[in-house]
Amino acid sequence: MGKPATPRALSDNEAKAVARMLRVSPRKLNLVAALIRGKPVDTALADLEFSRKRIANDVKKCLESAIANAENNHDLDVDDLIVAEAHVGKAFVLKRFHARARGRGARIEKPFSHLTIVVRQVEEAKA
User: Which CDD domains match (predicted)?
Assistant: First the structure.
């Protein structure tokens, strides 16, 4: 006698992966997420592989996880997947102190972000 299962939030041709607590500001992460939005997954992986942004490696890991979820959990064809959504959310901000001249102090903020990637199977991806 447990509680009923939560209905699936995504449609049957979608799968997602979430990367939490990425140590980068949401504004910088959104630049990399915008790079892959709407692209086929093989193109998106290639773009992330050769991106010079530091966080691109973590975004690539999240995208690979979404692809693996689509293939293993939802039986979707990897060749027909596109990046349907890649959205960024704010996490918390670490506040740190940096000593400055004449007895003053400056605040250092170290932001964290969340990244959600949704891949969708589209039959017309190769056309």
Answer: Ribosomal_L22
